[in-house]
């Protein structure tokens, strides 16, 4: 399946370009129900979490962070409901976040007792700001917190052998941490967990706050990828936020730098400016011919469920998901789109001007593409008459009709629908 060609490439013997590309989808982890939820004005109820979880499972997510059960009764109850009502398919891992404190880790294990597959996710902040000003610990103290928590997790998991456990560690504020120190802490955690002896381990690298350009973050990821012990036994995950507007770019460059797994949320809800948007990142892969493994053809439903539960409207220009992202009002764009769509046959490489993707792949209708206002030209007017009424206009009439329709739209000051264009055609050219 090569409906989308990956790149324009430059064929020069002395230069490989692009130097890197993403060849396969990462393992996705959806954190909507935890990071997304913690940023909401009105946090999700158990019923809303169930609805959201169902959607995430149906579209294909296999790793889903379901909450922070030691910090919230709703999250605790939700974990219990997932397990007791058998709502988690066998191939899906539920993930639970906890601070690195003994009583909280204990409560977290209680929340997921009886789960088939569970990821216990511990974190502690490692950056100088947090060490010096928030926790007042030195580097050794900071590392000791992580090692102690990892030990508790290992020991508590051993007491619940009915579950297949994965362990996840996040050096929170990784992007602001000295990278060599992050490597040191990760190595110390892995000495406890010993991924080389069969324990499934995820090392998650957060841009808790996005503080640099995406290439700098990717360099930090690459340093971890190249230097941690037991690398080949560990999944390296990234968890980017969007403070500089580059959450998706940082995740993409991280994949090129060695990340195996990417955490994010559908449409990017999350702390402050949000988490990395799974829709944009996944669809970016798709348009380069890489199957993201997530069913985005259900985009309408995704948008509807996310909007309903988060109470956050989707921007009409949100990549791939917004109402207006496949619409052209301007005449020259409409003309080019009309010509390309007229030539496109199923099975061809998608080559349609101004449309990076076939809207039908996202469950959208072609009717949304060409819409008419005072900026539209003959291409658009001709297109809607052909499309909706099977009327093909001769060239001279295309120009005339475009002028008439433009003046109607100017008078109205907005969009006019194809029925109105048809009426204008009837009244001026058919009725005597
Ligand atoms: O952004 C962050 O650092 C987090 C961690 C807890 C993974 O959400
Ligand atoms: Zn986060």
TrEMBL record:
Cofactor(s) it depends on: Mg(2+)
GO cellular component: cytoplasm
GO molecular function: 2-isopropylmalate synthase activity; acetyl-CoA C-acetyltransferase activity; magnesium ion binding
Assigned EC number: 2.3.3.13
Reaction(s) catalysed by this chain's protein: 3-methyl-2-oxobutanoate + acetyl-CoA + H2O = (2S)-2-isopropylmalate + CoA + H(+)
Family membership: Belongs to the alpha-IPM synthase/homocitrate synthase family. LeuA type 2 subfamily.
Subunit structure: Homodimer.
Descriptive protein name: 2-isopropylmalate synthase
Keywords: Amino-acid biosynthesis, Branched-chain amino acid biosynthesis, Cytoplasm, Leucine biosynthesis, Magnesium, Metal-binding, Transferase
Function description: Catalyzes the condensation of the acetyl group of acetyl-CoA with 3-methyl-2-oxobutanoate (2-ketoisovalerate) to form 3-carboxy-3-hydroxy-4-methylpentanoate (2-isopropylmalate).
Limits of the Pyruvate carboxyltransferase domain: 26-300
Protein location: Cytoplasm
Binding site for Mg(2+): 35, 239, 241, 275
Pathway it works in: Amino-acid biosynthesis; L-leucine biosynthesis; L-leucine from 3-methyl-2-oxobutanoate: step 1/4
A Gene Ontology biological process term: L-leucine biosynthetic process
């Amino acid at each position: 399946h090569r409906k989308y060609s990956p790149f324009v490439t430059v064929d020069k013997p002395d230069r490989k370009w692009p130097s890197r590309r993403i060849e396969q989808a990462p393992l996705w982890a959806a954190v909507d129900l935890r990071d997304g939820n913690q940023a909401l004005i009105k946090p999700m109820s158990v019923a809303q979490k169930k609805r959201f979880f169902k959607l995430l499972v149906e579209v294909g997510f296999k790793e889903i962070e379901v909450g922070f059960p030691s910090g919230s009764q709703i999250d605790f109850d939700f974990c219990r409901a997932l397990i007791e009502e058998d709502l988690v398919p066998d191939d899906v891992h539920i993930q639970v976040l906890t601070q690195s404190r003994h009583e909280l880790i204990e409560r977290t294990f209680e929340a997921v007792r009886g789960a088939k597959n569970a990821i216990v996710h511990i974190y502690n902040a490692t950056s100088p700001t947090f060490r010096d000003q928030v926790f007042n610990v030195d580097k050794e103290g900071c590392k000791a917190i992580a090692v102690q928590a990892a030990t508790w997790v290992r020991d508590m998991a051993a007491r619940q052998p009915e579950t297949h456990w994965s362990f996840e560690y996040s050096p929170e504020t990784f992007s602001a941490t000295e990278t060599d120190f992050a490597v040191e802490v990760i190595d110390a955690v892995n000495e406890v967990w010993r991924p080389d002896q069969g324990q499934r381990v995820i090392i998650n690298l957060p841009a808790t706050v996005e503080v640099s350009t995406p290439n700098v973050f990717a360099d930090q990821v690459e340093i971890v990828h190249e230097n941690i012990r037991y690398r080949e036994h560990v999944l390296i995950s990234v968890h980017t936020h969007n403070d500089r507007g580059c959450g998706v770019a940082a995740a993409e460059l991280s994949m090129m730098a060695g990340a195996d797994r990417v955490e994010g949320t559908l449409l990017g809800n999350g702390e402050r400016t949000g988490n990395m948007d799974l829709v944009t990142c996944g669809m970016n892969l798709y348009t380069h011919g890489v199957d993201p493994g997530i069913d985005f053809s259900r985009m309408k439903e995704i948008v509807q469920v996310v909007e309903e539960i988060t109470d956050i409207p989707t921007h009409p220009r949100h990549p791939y998901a917004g109402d207006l992202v496949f619409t052209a009002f301007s005449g020259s764009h409409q003309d080019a789109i009309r010509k390309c769509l007229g030539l496109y046959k199923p099975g061809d490489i998608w080559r349609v001007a101004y449309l990076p993707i076939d809207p039908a792949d996202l469950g959208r209708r072609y009717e949304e593409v060409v819409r008419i206002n005072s900026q539209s030209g003959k291409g658009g007017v001709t297109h809607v008459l052909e499309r909706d009424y099977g009327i093909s206009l001769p060239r001279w009439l295309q120009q005339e009709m475009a002028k008439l329709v433009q003046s109607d739209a100017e008078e109205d000051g907005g969009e006019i629908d194809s029925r109105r264009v048809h009426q204008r055609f009837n009244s001026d050219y058919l009725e005597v």
